Amino acid sequence: MAYNAVTETVILFGGSGEGGALGDTWEWDGQTKTWTELFPAASPSPRIGTSLAYDAITREIVLFGGNGSTGDLNDTWSWNGATWTQRFPAASPSPRQVSSIAYDASLGQVVLFGGRAPDGQSLDDTWAWNGIRWTQLKLPAQPPARYTGAMDFDPFSDGLVLFAGWLACCTPLDDTWLLAPVLAR
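and the corresponding structure tokens:
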């Protein structure tokens, strides 16, 4: 899920249901306390473990990867409030699911960290999406590999805070990291 600041709603895509991976788009309106299923003209394939974040510059929600019927994915989609559009950047993070993703206001970009690779291993790479392309960030210090970590922007420290996650099957992490703007530039 991700909050869409333009429509002041939350967008939910995919997940897992009784029949397997889902490919539906839902919108939560907090004012009316209602879920509405949306039927966009284009949509990503059904998947679980996808990552979504709102991009304040492009005013779109960015969706990356997940696990679908063909395995782990590395596709990028954007939601403009009415439909999904697949993006075809020259470079992308490798296929993965359950990555940490958030908009970094100090960078003006969506940042993706880690995730779980198709072989089940945790990843430790960091990527930034500027609305057109993914760029791998080379950081002088970075968190250990992980998937399902919680990440969001902290305006007081002017950076992304990453907390916890899983190193590999059955190895939980409980550490906290700050991706400060000085590290990513």
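(Above: one complete record from the training split.) Residues 25 and 38 are 5 Å apart (CA to CA).
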